[in-house]
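User: For a benchmark we're assembling, each entry needs the component sequences followed by a predicted structure for the full assembly. Here are entry 17's components. Please fill in the structure.
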Amino acid sequence: MTAQEILFQYCLRMGDTHNVLAHRMGEWCTNGHILEEDIAMTNIALDHIGTSRAWLIYGGDVEGKGRTEDDLAFHRDERSYFNMLITELPNGNFADTIARNFMFDAFALLYYSELANSSDETLAGIAQKAIKEAKYHLKHSSNWMVRLGDGTEESHQKMQIAINEVWRFTGNMFEMDDIDQNLADAGIGVDCEKLKDAWMSTIVNTLKDATLTIPENNYMLTGSKKGVHTEALGHMLAEMQSLARAYPDAKW
Amino acid sequence: MKEPITITELEVWKVLEQIPDPEIPVISITELGVVRDVKIEGSAIAIKITPTYSGCPATNVFEQDIKTEMEKLGFEQVNISFQYSPAWTTDWLSEEAREKLRDFGIAPPEGTTKDKKFLLGEDPTVKCPQCKSTNTVMTSQFGSTACKSLYKCQDCLEPFDYFKCI
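Assistant: Structure for entry 17:
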């Protein structure tokens, strides 16, 4: 792989990660349990779309084949999508959404705080922007973690089940393959292995406040870096991409 | 033959100052601080903008507005690119712009991102833009647009938008 191909692949991974999570958050539109929450989730969706867009525009530039962010988002199949598995998990009930987002938000804040030091100016810029938004997202999801975990007996139970369910997808966020290692060594990308301890202490602290327990199961799922996903992603992309594929020249 | 373009960059900035923010029409895109650079080369113009929030839908609108205005000035090629670094911050809002926001009914960002309160992640004390009371409370961290939170005043009982400090 050339340096250019490596960077392109890296941009796809992060661009896809935000795009897929944005779509999941968008699915909450009109389904929030209170108006404020409906607005919060769609606001967060917008932030992720924006971050995804920045990654994919840059990816398209790096690739140099004239592909736009829309080409990349709407004209690649499931096996060519490289988003983190955790982001494609269906929304489930509200606790499932909060557990998924909380795990990711805690990661994203640490990841972008590191990426802000990237020797690649564009990536450092994307990171500086994303840090500010990740802070808001983490505040939102951790508030709900505590509110539901330390809430009623039922909300506590639902929150704990959600944590248990999402847990096996968290290891994937810290995986490092040759591409990641190459860019981390070059001072362009982030060594995600090194974020794990700080991430774990965020999780431990919040779960403690929320009176929730960290799952003991340490079996972690993998695959996203090779385009291998859970069954949820194909269904999601089919819906997300249908309009753009049926009407490739559509403008709105 | 076409007339050569004789407009200066300063004059372009004057035109940009007239383009309103699509969501908050009382302030212009230059007061908002999103226009970072203007460069004229022959009949082409390159403009760099920094988005306020990465997913802000208004970005596309003012991108189009800039294009239209520049074409009116006679530029044949208008290149608008995004500059992400340094990231946009509410610190770039002028005192005048903050005053205009207040008059429009939106509480401007309290202080700057360098303030201790902000750095410690504490919630700011927000003044009601209607009655100026500080007896206000946040009803939702996310408001009608990405850049705003929803507050209510406990004295005059009016709900209002607060332009988040970022």
